[in-house]
Structures are given as C-alpha cells and as structure tokens.
Amino acid sequence: MAGFNKVVHSYEEALAGLTDGMTVIAGGFGLCGIPEGLIAQIKKMGTKDLTVVSNNCGVDGFGLGVLLEDRQIKKMIASYVGENALFEQQLLSGELEVELTPQGTLAEKIRAGGAGIPAFFTATGYGTPVADGKETREINGRNYVLEHSITGDFAIVRAWKADRYGNLVFRHTAMNFNPMVATAGKITVVEVEEIVEPGELAPTEIHTPGIYVHRVIKGSFEKRIERRMVRKD
Question: What is the pTM of this model?
Fold first, then answer.
C-alpha cells in the first residue's frame, strides 16, 4: 500500500495493528452486509478483550458470533440479541458485558462519532432503563437523554465496489450501518466484492469518499441467509 493506493492483498495486512483490548466497530445488519472475511481474520488472530460495536452479534457459528466462541469479546454494544443463542447465554450468565442501545440511537452515536460530535440529546429511551445514569434535559417542553458518540480503534466495513483510492459504493440493503461505521474508526478497513481503477466510479454513485478509508481488500463472500422463510402451499 503506497500513496493514495489503499489496496492490501492479505487479511493479515488488512488488520495489522489490531491488538487486545481495542474497540472494533463493525458494519452490517443481521448477516446482511457484514465484513465476514475480516471477522474471520479476527477469529484467526485470537485477539481478545475486545469491545465490539455493531447492530447485533451475528448468529451462532457465523459473523461476529464466531468471536464469542473463544470469548474474544469483552463488551458488546448492540441493538438486540437476535438469533444468537451463545450471545444470549453469555449475556444472562454475566460472562459478557452488554450495552443494549436503541437501533436509531446506535446509528446516530456512530454517525456523530465520525462527524466529530461528542454527544447529542435524543428523546428515545427517556423514562426507561436506557436513560439510567445518563444526563437528561427538558427542551421546549420535551424530555431528552444525553447520548455520547462512539468511535473505534478499528472500523470493519463491507462494500460492493471500491476503487484503489478507497472510494466506496454500497449495494441495496447491504448499505445499512456500513457508511456510518466507515467514518468512525481510527483505522477503517473495507472488504469489497470488486476493486476498480480510479475514475471508473462515477462521482454521483460514490457513497463514502476514500478520505475515510485506510485499507481495502477484495474478499469472497458466502452471503448466508439468516433465516430462510418459505411459504407452505
């Protein structure tokens, strides 16, 4: 990787510098748009005591769920448990510290972190356990909760296309949390389906500019379906 060229050719190089105790922000929603190769590399590295920020923690045996198997995650900041039995087990047993955050609030905490905004007020969660221990304020007759923004040591992201400069295009619902996550890491690593030359992406189709991106790697994806639903005739 040299100059404006953000492309790396191995997962070891992509996650170089990730060490125990760091905070990792991961894009994806369920199993849609997750950087599965980068997650698998974290599993392979055995990096532990991680704080992981993501909408959820994958499923048993896939996605971020694989990091629970060897207790690599110390704290999980997420919106819901989902269909991950191991996540639920570790939460209820107290093995895993979990901070459940309303989904829109979590998205805004990440976006605000990427924008350099330290905190913001939101009405979501006021009067519920979500607001416990947090500053509240009445503004124009409505009560709000102060939420602090989130940044990470690493942000791991999944995109559809990138050029060598790190400009990103996301595809359909796989966009989800990924654009926000891409802005909120000290080091942002992006796994993509296709890498093109600079100039091949029209400026109007770029969702995240390369200024936010530090490393890009071409991956291959299983694209597993979280729960297959079929109609019985």
Answer: 0.92
Q: Sheet with 136-139: list strands edge to edge.
A: 119-122, 142-148, 136-139
Question: How sure is the predictor about 224, in pLDDT bands with cuts at 50, 70 and 90?
Answer: low
Q: Which of 206, 203, 204 is nearest to 192 (CA)?
A: 206
- Please say whether the beta carbons of 28 and 39 come within 8 A: no
Q: Yes or no: say if 146 and 121 are a contact pair by the CB < 8 Å rule.
A: yes
**What count of other Cβ atoms lies within 10 Å of the Cβ of residue 30?**
20
Residue with tokens 């199993």: 31
Distances (CA, A) of 136 to 121, 131, 146, 201, 231: 8, 8, 6, 45, 47
**Candidate CATH numbers 2.60.40.1170, 2.40.30.60, 2.40.30.10, 3.40.1080.10; the one for domain 22-100+151-218:** 3.40.1080.10
Give the residues across from 154 on adjacent strands.
24, 187
